[in-house]
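Folds abound. A case:
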Amino acid sequence: MAALQIKNIPTGAGDDIKLDASYALGDTKQVISTSAASPVFAMFSGTNRNPGGAGVNGAAYQSIGIGATTDAVWLPNHQTTGAVNQAGFFGDNQLKLTEAYGIRGAFNHNWDPYWSSSFFGSASAVRYRGNVGDLTSGKGQYCAAFGVGKVFSADYVCNPDFNVYQVGVVTRWTPVKNLTFSAEVMAFFLDQKYTGAAILGPAAPKPTTVYEFKDQSAVSLNVRAQRNF
């Protein structure tokens, strides 16, 4: 990780710019993480998919975007027993490390002693190294395991790589020392790499039906009152 802070900029007293970049191999949460117990992005929205086919090749119920923030993919080796692993393929008993990198930045401006605003953003990427057809690679085994028991459309392509982007602005009001009110607007974008559609059974209340793989986005508004003692 490398970080940079720029002070004494001409926009105002106390203003600054902060930047940092990070790279991880086998330690993805140092770059990107979620608060969920299972660190996976699973986002839903609408779909326009209606190619006119039947079943999984026809219209979709909704769209879904998936991004798993794993540290590694394990390829268990059962060749000595003549069995296969749960994905149905032999492995080499190795951990195939996941690669991740990202950059974040923020610009803080003080309007006066009571009001300040920050504009911030980030871009991060998670990469499963190897190729889909190579079962000795993390990407190949991940896709093999992901496909077990599922029905896919004819145009389906597996690729667990994904990017996430965030951009937002927060404005703070500090009427007295150690008391701050703030409002934040943030946009989030999930750039996932799967294509096509599949019959999936996500967690309730979502039904088991056809979902299109598609990029997703969300916008949030957060208000906060903070008192420091």
About this structure: Residues 2-227 form one domain. The helical segments are 138-146. The CA atoms of residues 42 and 191 lie 12 Å apart.
